[in-house]
Amino acid sequence: MLLRRMAFPKFLNNETTESMIEYLEWAAASFSVGNLVYVYTLKNSEGNLAFEDTHNILPWITFLIAMLHVNLPMETVNKRLFPVKKDPTANLDFQAAREKFRTV
Q: How confident is the model over 88-101, as pLDDT tens digits?
């Protein structure tokens, strides 16, 4: 029965890729929340909070940056920060575009 039944794996489509990227944006937020929970619940051997006497501003800064990253339209921000030049050879035939190639 195993030899007669065969299934090919489904290929990932564009929707799956885009949804994975959307979930990946939440990774930094999840990490920062986990960091906050760790800092405020970790106890030392005496039963006191381990980070009670230190400054706890860094976990809050990472949380703020992660929330900004999740809530801002990052596609627009990235397009403004990292502009991509259009390909000057896109509409030329090979002989005309060959002169503009970076390598010989």
A: 767 788 888 777 77
CA dihedral 45, 47, 49, 50 (to 10 degrees): -10
Instruction: Give the list of residues 6+ apart from residue 101 with CB closer than 8 angstroms, or none.
Output: 89
Going by the DSSP 8-state scheme, the letter that residue 49 receives in this structure is B
Contact 63, 33 (CB under 8 A): yes
SS3 31: helix
Tell me the C-alpha distance between 13 and 57, whole Å. 42
- Which of 62, 22, 65 minimizes the C-alpha distance to 38? 62
38 to 13, 14, 19: CA distances (angstroms): 37, 37, 29
Contact 84, 90 (CB under 8 A): no
pLDDT digits (tens, 9 = 90+) for 10-24: 666 778 888 888 888
Q: Scan for tokens 């990253």, then name that residue.
A: 69
